[in-house]
Structures are given as structure tokens and as C-alpha cells.
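Report of the visiting student (M.T.), summer placement. My assignment was to run the structure pipeline on a short list of targets and document each run. The first record concerns Putative membrane protein insertion efficiency factor.
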Amino acid sequence: MRTVLLLPRNACVAVLLVYRKLISPIYGDVCRYYPSCSRYTLEAIQQWGVIRGVGLGAWRILRCNPWSAGGVDDIPERSHLYRITTRGFVAAEERN
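After the run finished, the C-alpha cells were exported:
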């Protein structure tokens, strides 16, 4: 059941992984922040879920503009309820 609930989150992760692999290299290193906006959004969705993660990513993209100072901007911390696989997808923690 928990795996089914993670499907929307992992669908967004898949889209971002494809974007980072195929489209992001075309633009090069243009983000004013570290990590890049796509990486920030990916991590936000992995940790916070689709709604909050997309919201955090959208707010970050709005702040990433020529008038911004930029710098290091990590996502807000959250205790991990799930584990991140080596491919970047979110999986339910195995219960003992």
C-alpha cells in the first residue's frame, strides 16, 4: 500500500531525472544557487512529497534570477520517513 502512495512522488522524480540527464546539460551551469534548481526540486520532492516539494522548487526557481545574490540554499530538513534508492527513487522503509 505504501508503495502505491509513493507512485506520484516517484513519477515526478523520474521526470526530473530525465530532465537532469537530457536537458540540463544543454544549459550548462547557469543556476545562481547551489545545489542547482533542478537538484533542489528533486531533493525536495524526495523528502517532502509532490505538493510541498513542487512548491519549494517553484519558490526556488522564482528566486533564481539575475538580481539574486545566489549562494548555498539547501532544502528544509525533515526526518526521513522513506529511503532513497541508488537510482534516486523513494521506497518505503522496511519494517522489522
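The beta strands are 33-34, 71-72, 82-84, 90-92. The longest helix spans residues 7-27. I thank the supervising group for their guidance throughout the placement.
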